[in-house]
Specification:
This protein is α+β, with helices and mostly antiparallel strands. It has one domain: Ribosomal protein L30/L7 (Ribosomal Protein L30, Chain: A, 2-Layer Sandwich). The chain has a 3-stranded antiparallel β-sheet, with no helix packed on it. Helix 1 crosses helix 2. One of its GO terms (cellular component) is cytosolic large ribosomal subunit. It comes from Nakamurella alba.
Length: about 60
């Protein structure tokens, strides 16, 4: 399954509750923190509600280890 690398680029302070909760649900804890998540409808919904706080890019795992 495809994966996405999600990075928080702005603070959640001063934003509405759904955006704050979406960022936290993705596993992000601070600015410039990145996580790799599975690409699913639920994750896309979290990203959509907080697009102004996040950057998203495709992620390809290297299986060389």
């Amino acid at each position: 399954m495809a994966q996405l690398k999600v990075t928080q680029i702005k603070s959640t302070i001063g934003n509405k509750r759904p955006a704050r909760e979406s960022v936290r649900s993705l596993g992000l804890k601070r600015i410039h923190h990145s996580v790799v998540v599975e690409d699913s409808a639920i994750v896309r919904g979290y990203i959509r509600s907080a697009t102004h706080l996040l950057t998203v890019e495709p992620y390809e795992a290297t299986e060389g280890k």
